[in-house]
């Protein structure tokens, strides 16, 4: 049918530049849309494919797609420099992928001195509030049930109201070029029979609590000009183009048809009531200076009396009372329900943490503004930068008091334990590593908050080391232009990765030859099975094949 009618039409001289939309013109002349209808075929929707890459630097986070599930890496058993194991022993041991956890260090922790939140302080009051709330909820639920029943009854008796729209004078009057019938039905033009009592003042009554004309819930109003008004609860809509092209939420829109039928004052009050106040502008970048840690040196540091906490493998975040910012000052836009319990008058330093071993998914979530997956994240708080001149213990007690009073739903107070000895520190580290943690942080007692890297904060981490074969040299950028920027390596399991950190100028000017074996260290494996934050250690002249590290199993906290 479309083909037959298209061949009898005359081609419009303006073709794809024609602006005429009236039906009569379209029926008389042929346009590009008529030709496309005859050629239209149903095409299958293309599948969307995302490239997924691991994040290699926590200071330069990029949003990622949904990350794949962790792959199992069965590496061969490592041989340390002090081992005298024969080649046959190595071959035998490499067939097993099991590595025992670190030996559990027994230490009496019953008399440990801690700074921790006591959530039982409000427990009695909370129980009373719960009972009162439950009783009131039941009453509200019964009321809601009654209201719902009434709504359903109204909805079952829906009706379509026929309405003759009030015509207005066309603002173009004798210069109007439109010829379509719907426009003529809606506006007066020269030559029309205009009633003697016609009033173009658009006057409506000033009452705002009730509409000018009733529109029951679930009902509709059919204008004689062809447009339809509908109501669903507190949401009113119109089928006219002026309503549909608006970009505001549907309950914040209005149009001349709604104003005519319901009354201008009613519509003005309804839209104002539904319009949410605009959020205050939040800067996407600010200049901040956070306290950064040095590495712990066992030979030069006596940890007795220092405060111990777990080193969290998440995304560092500074809370300024309105928004989260990374250590580089870039904003993380969390949902309102995530930040509603956080203080507006206290600046916090902490970590957005999605769980041990979940670094990549945590990065993906926090880089996605207003994502519903923020429910899987908790903000772990360990300092208050705005109280920088106060000692550490006083800062932590201030945060502790806020947490006990407000009990924020998506924030966690990081517990601090006073170190008794190096053995105590070693026991704590062993436990954290056995449950899949990254390491420990220790804080000097009575220290102030410094916005720089300070010896008052030390980090303790354990690394794996392994061997890989060099398969390519990657060209450097910036200061490393025209020399080696990184080594492309292949692990024993076949996975490939790049390592540039740890290379000296000498290594970059004369990089290890392709085919040589290098030693590298890393913190953990990413979900794709490649080393995370690998660091070049050196060339192994005594090896001809790559050898992977064995990853210790993760234990329950009770077993660790």
TrEMBL record:
Residues 376-472 form the ATP-dependent DNA ligase family profile domain. GO terms for molecular function: ATP binding; DNA ligase (ATP) activity; zinc ion binding. InterPro entries: APLF_PBZ, DNA_ligase_ATP-dep_cent, DNA_ligase_ATP-dep_CS, DNA_ligase_OB, NA-bd_OB-fold, NAD_dep_DNA_ligaseB, Znf_SWIM. Residues 88-97, 125-136 have a biased composition (Low complexity). Its cofactor is a divalent metal cation. Residues 227-266 form the SWIM-type domain. Keywords: DNA damage, DNA repair, DNA replication, Ligase, Metal-binding, Zinc, Zinc-finger. GO terms for biological process: DNA recombination; DNA repair; DNA replication. Residues 29-50, 78-87 have a biased composition (Basic and acidic residues). Residues 29-105, 118-148, 191-217 are annotated as: Disordered. This is DNA ligase.
């Amino acid at each position: 049918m479309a083909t037959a009618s298209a061949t009898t039409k005359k081609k419009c001289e303006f073709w794809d530049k024609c602006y005429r939309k009236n039906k009569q013109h379209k029926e008389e002349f042929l346009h590009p849309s008529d030709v496309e209808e005859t050629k239209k075929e149903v095409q299958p929707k293309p599948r969307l494919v995302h490239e997924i890459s691991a994040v290699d630097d926590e200071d330069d986070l990029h949003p990622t797609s949904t990350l794949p599930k962790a792959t199992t890496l069965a590496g061969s058993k490592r041989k340390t420099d002090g081992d005298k194991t024969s080649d046959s022993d190595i071959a035998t041991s490499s067939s097993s992928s099991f590595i025992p956890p670190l030996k559990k260090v027994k230490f009496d922790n019953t008399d440990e001195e801690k700074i921790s939140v006591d959530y039982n302080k409000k427990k009695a009051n909370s129980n009373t509030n719960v009972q009162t709330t439950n009783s009131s909820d039941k009453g509200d639920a019964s009321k809601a049930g009654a209201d719902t029943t009434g709504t359903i009854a109204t909805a079952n008796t829906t009706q379509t109201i026929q309405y003759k729209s009030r015509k207005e004078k066309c603002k173009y009057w004798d210069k109007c070029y439109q010829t379509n019938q719907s426009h003529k039905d809606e506006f007066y033009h020269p030559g029309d029979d205009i009633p003697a009592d016609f009033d173009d003042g658009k006057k409506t009554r000033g009452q705002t609590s009730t509409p000018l004309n009733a529109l029951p819930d679930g009902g509709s109003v059919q204008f004689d000009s062809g447009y339809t008004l509908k109501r669903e609860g507190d949401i009113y809509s119109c089928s006219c183009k002026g309503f549909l092209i608006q970009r505001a939420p549907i309950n914040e829109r209005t149009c001349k048809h709604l104003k005519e039928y319901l009354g201008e004052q009613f519509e003005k009050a309804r839209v104002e009531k539904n319009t949410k106040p605009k959020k205050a502008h939040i800067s996407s970048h600010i200049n901040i200076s956070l306290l950064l840690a040095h590495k712990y040196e066992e030979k030069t540091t006596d940890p007795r009396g220092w405060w111990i906490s777990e080193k969290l493998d998440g995304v560092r975040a500074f809370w300024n009372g309105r928004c989260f910012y990374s250590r580089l000052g870039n904003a993380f836009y969390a949902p309102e329900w995530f930040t509603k319990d956080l203080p507006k008058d206290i600046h916090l330093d902490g970590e957005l943490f999605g769980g041990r071993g979940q670094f990549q998914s945590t990065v993906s979530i926090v880089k996605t503004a207003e994502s519903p997956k923020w429910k899987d994240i908790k903000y772990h708080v360990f300092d208050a930068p705005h109280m920088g001149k106060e000692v550490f213990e006083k800062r932590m007690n201030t945060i502790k008091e806020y947490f006990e009073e407000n009990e924020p739903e998506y924030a966690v107070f990081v517990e601090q334990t006073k170190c008794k000895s190096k053995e105590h520190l070693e026991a704590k580290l062993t436990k954290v590593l056995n449950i899949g943690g990254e390491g420990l942080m220790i804080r000097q007692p009575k220290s102030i908050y410094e916005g720089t890297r300070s010896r008052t904060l030390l980090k303790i981490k354990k690394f794996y080391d392994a061997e890989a074969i060099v398969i390519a040299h990657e060209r450097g950028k910036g200061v490393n232009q025209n020399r080696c920027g990184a080594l492309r390596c292949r692990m024993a399991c076949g996975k490939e990765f790049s390592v540039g950190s740890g290379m000296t100028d000498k290594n970059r000017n004369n990089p290890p030859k392709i085919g040589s074996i290098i030693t590298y260290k890393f913190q953990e494996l990413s979900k794709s099975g490649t080393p995370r934050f690998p660091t070049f250690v050196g060339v192994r002249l005594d090896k001809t094949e790559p050898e992977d590290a064995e990853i210790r199993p993760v234990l329950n906290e009770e077993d660790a």
